[in-house]
Amino acid sequence: MELQKETLSRRSLLIGAAAGGACMITPGLVHAQAAATAPALAAGDVVLFQGDSITDAGRNKDAADANNPGALAGGYAMMIASRLLGVHSGLRLQCYNRGISGNKVPDLDARWQADTIALKPRVLSILIGVNDMWHKLSGKYDGTVDQYEKGFAALLAKTVQAVPGVTLVICEPFVLRCGAVNETWFPEFDQRREAAKRVAELAGAIWVPFQSMFDAAITADTPPEYWAGDGVHPTMAGHALMAKTWLDTTGLG
């Protein structure tokens, strides 16, 4: 009961902040992450993957039905969905991928009603943040870390209000130091990762630590390029490692 009260209190803070327009998030409002656990999945539950090109992975956007291999694409979302559908075969889960290449937090917000809320996910996995930084470096966007944090928090507040009982899985934005990624990304990218974690904690979400996962996986035999050739988009090995970590962290696999 105490855990339920704490989680509800955290979500109330998130919703109240968003409703107030400013969606202020300060260190004083950030608490230790609740013991977020995987839901007890039920028949017909929807599992939805949202994000940018890392999630998109070249999916067929003309295929909108659940559990469609082309619609799920060939990345971590497809690998996770395949495992869930095999392990929970009796539940007839509905797995969707709605990632879109190039998306930032404002882009998610613009399509959230149709691509997320309307699907009423039981489990919602979100990986967003690399384009908020990459597009800024290329001069195509001027969003700040603060705007990223507030916009992300407002998006989650909107979601928990519209989809009662949704389990949020927030994936850590990541980059590897190779390809397109150089020192101009830092320290701001790390600040954005920290902002994403604060938002996840405030929402009582499950946090999937992709950056620390990749950092630990880099060795002399498996350099950054082995996991993500351009420093942003995972290779097959990178996607497989992401899928394993997601399943292990959520406990759903």
Quick overview:
The chain has 253 residues and is α/β, with parallel strands linked by helices.
* Residues in helix, %: 40-55%
CATH 2nd-level architecture: 3-Layer(aba) Sandwich
Number of strands: 5
Shape: globular
The total tally of domains equals 1
Mean of residue pLDDT?
88
Percent strand: 5-15%
Tell me the name of the CATH homologous superfamily. SGNH hydrolase
Helix run count: 11
List its salient traits.
253 residues, alpha/beta, Rossmann fold, 11 helices, 5 strands, disordered N terminus
Which SSEs are present, and which pair or pack?
Layout: H1 2-19, E1 46-51, H2 53-56, H3 69-72, H4 76-87, E2 94-97, H5 105-115, E3 123-127, H6 130-137, H7 145-162, E4 167-171, H8 188-203, E5 206-208, H9 210-217, H10 224-227, H11 236-250
Parallel strand pairs: 1-2, 1-3, 3-4, 4-5
Characterize the structure shown.
With 253 residues, this protein is α/β, with parallel strands linked by helices. The protein has a single domain (2-250), classed as Rossmann fold, CATH 3.40.50.1110. 47% of the residues lie in helices and 9% in strands. The chain is built from eleven helices and five strands. The protein has helices at 2-19, 53-56, 69-72, 76-87, 105-115, 130-137, 145-162, 188-203, 210-217, 224-227, 236-250; strands spanning 46-51, 94-97, 123-127, 167-171, 206-208. The protein has a five-stranded parallel beta sheet with strand order 2-1-3-4-5, with helices on both faces. α1 (2-19) packs across α7. The radius of gyration is 17 Å and the shape is globular. It starts with a helix and ends with a helix.
